[in-house]
Design goal:
Aspartate Aminotransferase, domain 1, 16 helices, globular, binds pyridoxal-5'-phosphate, pyridoxal phosphate binding, cystathionine gamma-synthase activity, Cys_met_metab_PP
């Protein structure tokens, strides 16, 4: 396999109007690459393209709807693939291409497609790779909106689905035997309960039955986990989270072999939701510090998870970095860090939990995760308020569940804030009284 890495002389891709004839092949150039650590790749991969003037270290934003040609001869050379370029901005953009190469390098994938949101990447994958009449096996706790799309919308297009428990291999094997499965789709870790899937173990039976494996690795980030190296065919991200990292831009990407990405790309010509070049620039800028941010978030989240686990006002902590997590061994074997999201159940009901959340001073009460600012939310209130308590319980969303996304603030400040909010919760009439609270 050709692995994408920072290229000093990458050519453009030819994108004639009828679809991509070819996506870029990026070759490792060892003499140009003294270092290939993730830290160096986040900074350098995809940069120093031959179209970027030497007066600029930052990647320029190419805001143009189309490229122009010197003359008809040049148009013909382009059409025949002799002068590759992006003809029209819906098919691709040079600023975005830098970003795509950066992600390919980090994910150790041949190719990447960047689109305008994570959900856009998910829908592009599902529509392009699962034919009408096809079958999808997905995990029950995949991203909720992806699950709703598979269940309620793809079903209307003649695509059937089976939802399985993440670690019940028997259900997966049964579905593979019973149906002609086109795609196995899962999040690892999952949101918000942080279940982890043994990616290597599920990929083997899927491949032997001709099914592709796609992993939503958003909660891990490309720093902590590389699903393609574990056997997955595709890895996708809501780049809105760790990749952009600043809670200020929406984007999504999918990486895999050139063959698969070019299929998704050509379908995406019709979906028509490219990332705008300004957003690509912001994401590239955000990514320069992704390794530093994620490392800080990993450390803070692990330390807080350990603190919470010992606290008498906390009933349960969900974090793959804790030995008490049911898939801790799987997580340890396939992740280099466990991410910045920690979910936990406090000792109290819906209202006591609201009191805890409202007592926090540092984090914003907001959905999303992965940015510099810590965010907190109570899923029963924020994401699942429209669902009955019984429906929420069925999918494991208890009233007292809190999802904390740690930013890059100092651990001591966050810990002090959480401890004071737990203390404050004790004063709430909905909270069982405990003798002492750390
Ligand atoms: C795990 C996961 N995947 C995909 C998405 C969708 O991404 P976006 O909001 O960028 O469309 C989200 C959004 O929260 C998510 O959490």
């Amino acid at each position: 396999m050709v692995v994408a890495c920072p290229s000093l002389e990458t050519g453009y891709v030819s994108c004639p109007i009828q679809g991509p004839t070819q996506l870029p092949v990026l070759h490792i150039k060892p003499d140009h690459l003294p270092v290939i650590s993730d830290a160096s790749l986040t900074v350098h991969a995809g940069e120093k393209q031959n179209w970027i003037p030497k007066c600029s270290i930052g990647t320029p934003i190419i805001n143009s709807t189309a490229r122009w040609f010197e003359n008809s001869e040049e148009v013909i050379a382009f059409k025949e693939g002799r002068k590759p370029s992006f003809e029209y901005a819906r098919y691709g953009n040079l600023t975005t291409k830098v970003l795509e190469e950066k992600i390919s390098a980090l994910e150790r994938a041949e190719s990447t497609l960047f689109v305008s949101s994570g959900m856009g990447a998910i829908v592009a994958v599902l529509l392009s790779l699962v034919p009408p009449g096809g079958h999808i096996v997905a995990t029950k706790d995949c991203y909720w909106e992806a699950r709703m799309f598979i269940q309620n919308k793809l079903s209307q297009m003649g695509v059937s689905s089976t939802f399985v428990d993440m670690n019940d291999m028997n259900l997966l094997k049964e579905a593979l035997q019973k149906h002609k499965v086109s795609l196995f789709y899962a999040d690892s870790p999952s949101n918000p309960l942080l279940n982890c899937l043994d990616i290597k173990k599920v990929s083997e039976p899927c491949h032997s039955h001709g099914a592709l494996v796609c992993i939503d690795s958003t909660l891990a980030s490309p720093i902590n986990q590389k699903p393609v190296t574990l056997g997955a065919d595709l890895v996708l991200h809501s780049a809105t989270k760790y990749i952009s990292g600043h809670h200020d831009v929406v984007g999504g990407c999918v990486s895999g072999s050139e063959n698969l990405i070019s299929k998704i790309h050509s379908y995406h010509f019709d979906l028509g939701s490219p990332l705008v070049p300004n957003a690509a620039y912001m994401i590239i800028r955000g990514m320069k510090t992704m390794h530093l941010r994620v490392e800080a978030q990993n450390n803070t989240a692990l330390n807080i998870a350990q603190l919470l686990e010992k606290h008498p006002m906390v009933r349960h902590v969900y974090y793959p970095g804790l030995p008490s997590h049911p898939q801790h061994d799987i997580a340890t074997s396939q992740m280099s860090g466990f991410g910045g999201v920690v979910s936990f159940e406090v000792a109290g009901d819906l209202h006591a939990t609201m009191k805890f959340v409202d007592s926090l001073k540092l984090p914003y009460i907001a959905t999303s995760f992965g940015g510099c600012e810590s965010l907190v939310q109570q899923p029963a209130v924020m994401s699942f308020w429209d669902y009955s308590a019984a429906e929420r319980a069925k999918i494991g969303i208890k009233d007292n569940l809190v999802r904390f996304s740690f930013g890059v603030e100092k651990f001591e400040d966050l810990a002090a804030d959480i401890l004071q909010a737990l203390q404050n919760m004790i004063l709430c009439s909905h909270t069982p009284k405990l003798p002492s609270c750390g």
